[in-house]
Structure formats: C-alpha cells, structure tokens
Amino acid sequence: MAAVELKGLGKRYGAAVAVEHVSLRIEHGQLVCLLGPSGCGKTTTLRLIAGFIEPSEGEILVGDKVLSSPARTVPPEGRNMSMIFQSYALWPHMTVAENVAYGLRIRKMDRATVEAKLKAILSTARLEALADRYPGELSGGQQQRVSLARAMVVEPETLLLDEPLSNLDTNLREEMRFEIRRLHDRYRYTTVYVTHDQAEAMTTADLIVVMNHGRIEQLGTPLEIYDQPRSAFVARFIGGSNILTGQALDAGHVEIAGARLVAEGRPLKAGETVALSVRQHEIDLLTAPPTDGVNVVKAIVSRGVFLGSSRDYTAVLGDKTEIRITTPPDRNVMPGAEVWLRMPARGCRALMGGNEA
Ligand code: ATP
Predict the structure, then answer these.
(1) Which of 16, 78, 255, 270 is the most buried (most CB within 10 A)?
(2) Whose Cα sits closest to atom 16 in ligand 1?
(3) What is the pLDDT of residue 347?
C-alpha cells in the first residue's frame, strides 16, 4: 500500500513563490488536511499533487513511483486520483445515478459490476432516494454528497478535496464534516483535504498541516496542533489564542502589564522577551479583585458581544495590549468596567523564539 510523498516541493510564478520547501509523507489510508489562510499555498499544493500544474522544484511520489519532478510529469489522468471541487462540477443533464456511474462507465466496466458498485456507494452516501433526480433538483449538501460518491466510486488511490464544504451554510457544513469522516472511515482512501476552516480540519483530519506563506508551519495530529502550537501564527489560527508579550522573571514566570503570570511550555531565561499564548475561553473574567491575586492581571473592558451560547469580550491591559475573553452567556459586564483576568497556569503557554507575536 503506497504512501504519497512530497519532497522539497516548490512552485514559483515568475518572482512570486506560491509553495516552497514542502516535504510531507501521507501514509496509505490517512486523511490529511492542508490548513491555512487565503494565499498560503494550499490549493497550489493540491493542484501539484493532482498534476494540474508542474513543480518548479522537488518531487511527488506514490510509493516509489515518481509522479512529478521538474524533469518528468505523469499527466492527471495517469495518476489514479479523484479530485472534488468547491463547485461540485456535476453534469446538469445527468441524473444522480448517471453522474455517479460515469467514471465506472468510461473505465468500460461491465453492466453488472457498474450496477453493484453504484448501488453500494448510493447506499453509503445516503443517496438511494435521490438516484433519479437531476443536480438542479438537489440541495447544496445533497450535490456535495453526489460529488463525493462520484469521486469515491472509482476507488482512487488518492482522493483530493479542495474546500469541499465552502458553498454550504453553517449547519450543513457541520453535518458534512462528519459525513466526510464517516465515508473516509468506510473506504480509507488516502485523502488530502484543503480547507481554511480550523474546525473542519480538527473534526476530519488524522494529520493537520498548517501552512503559512507557502511553507509548512507545523504538522501534527489535531490534538498536538491545538495543545502544542509551535508559533504565534499557529496558536492564533487554531486555538483562538491571545498572544501576549512580556519579560521572563525566572524559569516559570513572566511579567505582563505589571502582573506576574505563571508560564508553561518551556523553561525560560530571566530577562528574555516571551510570547505567551492564552486561549480566550480559558481566561476567567472576574468583576471583583480576587483575594489571592495569583496569576491575575487587571484590565478595562472595551467591548462585549452577546453570541447566544457565550459572550465575547475585548479588554485592555495596563500596557495597552488588547486581550479577548470568551465567557458564559450570563457574565454581563459593561464597557468601561474594571475587571480581573485570571489566567490558568496551564493555559499560559510560552511559545518558542521570544518575539514571534
Ligand atoms: P485560497 O484559500 O484563497 O484558495 P490558497 O492557500 O489555496 O488560497 P494558493 O491558491 O495556493 O493559495 O496561492 C498561493 C499563492 O500563489 C498566492 O499568493 C497566489 O496569488 C499565488 N498564485 C497561485 N496561482 C497563481 C498563478 N497561476 N499565477 C500567479 N500566482 C499564483
């Protein structure tokens, strides 16, 4: 069973660098998410794997077979990969069943095999009742299930998904994340999934590759990426974290806006500048000064938004740093109020390399 391997992959457009030094091994049957903000190089990486574009440097291998290198490129149709696009790309004049079976028919499979495979995938993708409808008669979520079924039925070696849920509304997007994971668990195709939505990556991926400016910023399981962000970029992007900058007092304490806060994550050197990552929802917002005052910093609330299941506050510390806090919905504080923010010792994480904030 072959793994997909990217070795020192790069793509330049003139002087502009879209992807640079990307090395990654995707084991057979793994679902890997390429996650990052707009323009970070996710789609370019996916298109390189698909063979739609050629690399400026590096190689793509499946097992020990080279698919792409600057010297040689196997065309997309020779790669045994299926790609799913944001736009679904269904044929409007074909029914659901005809759309799904198309890939089998062009592979010249006999009628009985086509019927058996079609029946199985329509059942797994919960599309049996819709088999005779045309795409125009389906909801967005149903159309996306058809495009998934169409890509999976041909049993590709690798499945490539480019922002597959971005055209769906919030509820449907959440439902479809589980659907994609369920189908993946059933078929176990090696899958590369591009998204800018961290929740989508967290719920679907075995492995998340966080990209920034064309490079891999961090690679790890969803838990590793969430719990041990290596940089301020990853902490902000994944964990909804504040990044506070302070001065180390000793190996385990940092001074921020006049307060002494407990830091964890790595031993500190007294006097060094430290970037601390603190998750919004792990800060306790107190409206009276706590008697112990341990790990507490004073702030003034500048803004509060009611979000139904929570409230989102912005407060300003003594050194003018803005900090965001998520509280339960019943914690109602007016702008201008003085508050005390209790930082959990476990939540104040010292990031690598001091001044990354
Ligand atoms: P998005 O989420 O917005 O699709 P992305 O992370 O997928 O973004 P890419 O589409 O891979 O980003 O683009 C990476 C960088 O390469 C961008 O700065 C983009 O402008 C540039 N780029 C992509 N394709 C081309 C092209 N054909 N010509 C020139 N520059 C390009």
Answers:
(1) 255
(2) 18
(3) 66
